[in-house]
Amino acid sequence: MTAPSAAARSRPWIPLFIAVCLVAANMRMTIMGVGPLLDQIADDQGVSPSALGALASVPLLVWAFVSPLTHAISVRIGMSRTISWSLVVLAIGTVWRSLPGGPLNLWLGTALIGAALAVGNVLMPAVIKRDFSHRVPLVMGVYTAVLGALGSVGAGIVAPLSHIEHGGEELGWRFAMLGTGVLILPALVAWVWANAGRRTVAPMHPEQLGGGAGGVGAAALEALAPEASGGSRAADSPGRPDARAPGARGRSAGRRIWRDRLAWLVAFYMGAQSALFYMLTTWLAPLEISRGRSEVEAGFDVMFLQLTGIAGSILIPLLYRGRLRRWLPALIPIAMGVSATGIVFLPELLLLWILVYGLATGASLSMGLTLVAVRARTPESSSALSGMSQSVGYLLAAGGPIAFGWLHEISAGWTLPFALLFAVALGQVLAGLAVGRDRYVLEH
User: Tell me: the pLDDT tens digits for 288-328?
Assistant: First the structure.
């Protein structure tokens, strides 16, 4: 394993690690409360819960369109600064979504939240690659564990928050949605503080780095040497193509990544894992309510599903080693398919199936983000792969909750929509077999 670069060692890792965790806390919390509140929102807006299934897909659609733009923005102004602005936009969207008025505030606020989260989704794997290149699986596991944990908190607290009474009336779903943004400001402060001195280590302006920094600090530049996740590779000598300025290298990676077969396989893997996650987190509560559980109980079950995902995320750094590295991406969705079948045909063991599905979803997300980092040699190619794979992946995933709800509506049952879920899991297994091989994007 290669030792961390001198620049990486010179930067205090504790503030950076805390900032990464706080950003992770906001990556799901603001959108995970939609499922448990679908019935409330539908009653307030005068539509059916099935129609509101599209609301859960809005962030995914926005992620699909914003993700490929994120890499280009980060090349211009830097990864750290781009994430700072995304947190500001996230705060604005969270407030906008909760404003009283017509449905426009709800939908446009959700779209703005999706745009902000798209930036974090794309850049955080590259940031971890840049600042923790010697511990990518470990930090990625912690990142996804925190992401899942706070997402589950968001799902669990929204229903109780909405039923709090003030002046003889319940505060309602708008107040509950607003409460999911409580950690945005602390995350912004921690992120700005942790990255305040980065410009003195690696200037962010193109003219200061002879052609564009691409938001990559000195740690990223030295990471072009051998990395723990990518094996040994000699530093490029002047005159070779990869010796170009980081900004030019980043722009080239952003274009070439769309022609890379491995990148498309990673993109499908990301899309399948996202579809499996959002289909069940969106529709588990309505499923349980249709079987007689209360709204609050169903919300806590969704929270339980996501809390178990924390353990699944933490398992990846422990399991992703040795011969298991080759097969782990394919094994995870097998567990998801089995548990989805159990939810339909053995509902008396519902908590067991939720436990298994939760563990698998956490592991699947951590595995997908880890693949984004370890299937790329450099932070530039990792950022490009992240933007491309999440754009394609979330475009595929966006149809998941909508298709699931449509199949439920036309069949008046749950067997047909869960058959769709099982088919997506099978597709992820096949993609996992392909991306498990030890190879890298942009190396043809």
Answer: 888 888 877 887 888 788 788 888 888 888 888 888 889 99
CA 38 to CA 290: how far, in whole Å?
13
Tokens 């992703």 locate to: 320
Q: Is residue 266 a contact partner of residue 19, using CB atoms and an 8 Å limit?
A: no
Tokens at 253, concatenated: 């990676």
Give alpha helix (H) positions in 132-209: 136-162, 172-179, 184-194, 198-201
For the chain, the distance separating the N- and C-terminal CA atoms, rounded to the nearest angstrom, is 25
- Burial tier of 323 (Cβ tally within 10 Å: 0-12, 13-18, 19+): exposed
Which runs of consecutive H residues, i.e. helices, occur in 183-294?
184-194, 198-201, 218-222, 246-256, 261-290
Residue 322 burial (C-beta neighbours within 10 Å; 0-12, 13-18, 19+) = exposed
Reported pTM: 0.67
Q: CB of 332 within 8 A of CB of 361? A: no
Within 10 angstroms of residue 54's Cβ, the number of other Cβ atoms is 16
pLDDT digits (tens, 9 = 90+) for 340-365: 989 888 888 989 999 999 999 989 98
**In Å, what is the CA distance from 213 to each residue of 22, 115, 241?**
25, 24, 16
6-198+242-435, CATH topology level: Growth Hormone; Chain: A; (1.20.1250)
Residue in the block written with tokens 């869960």: 418
Q: Say if residues 214 and 232 touch (Cβ distance below 8 Å).
A: no
